[in-house]
Amino acid sequence: MSDAKRIEVTIDDMKFYVMGNDNEKYIKDLASDLDAKIKETARSNYKLNQVQTLVLCALNVLDDLEKMKADKDDLANTSDDKKEIMEKMEEIKDLKKQLLIFEDENKKANKTYRDLQQKTLDLEDRNRKLNRDLMDKNQELLDSKEVIKKLEDSISNLEEKNNSASRRIIDLSRELENLYGEN
């Protein structure tokens, strides 16, 4: 034989015997809740007879059941939404990590850029200095070429004078020879 129990309950002032394997307290609590719902429905709708009250109460119980099913579906959907939110949060964490990496790389790139910019400024300063030095050296070279030109002109004049003096010496030597030769 089965372990089914016979449990006596009172619903809307009527006695019923429920056969089942469930806990007796559970069955009696269900019956008590139903009895309270029927009495509440009867109080709210005092013009209804007992059958109408029971049908309306059954309809209310079914309505509550459907709403609970909808709530359960909403909870299931919420659970899916929660899972999606958790995935998005993980994605955000990953993106934050990537952002930190990019910020570090950006800082390094900016530092490298500043260093290169400073080196460029230093090289430009050095280049300006070298250009000034080159201009000074070019000026010195032009001045030296001018001095050389003057010296060459002086040498040329001196050579001319020397040649002239040499010719004069030769001429004078001949004259002296001629004068000594005549005496």
How are the SSEs placed, and which strands pair?
Blueprint: E1 5-11, E2 14-20, H1 24-44, H2 50-182
Antiparallel strand pairs: 1-2
Gyration radius, rounded:
62 Å
- Roughly how many Å apart are the termini? 188 Å
Percentage of β-strand residues: 5-15%
Helix content: over 70%
Q: Give the averaged pLDDT, no decimals.
A: 90
Rough outline: rod-shaped
Number of helices: 2
Secondary-structure-based class equals mainly alpha
What are the secondary-structure elements, in order, as H or E?
Answer: EEHH
Oligomer: single chain
Side by side, the strands of the main sheet go 1-2
DSSP strand tally: 2
Q: State the low-pLDDT regions, or none.
A: none
Question: Biggest sheet: strands, sense, closure?
Answer: 2 strands, antiparallel
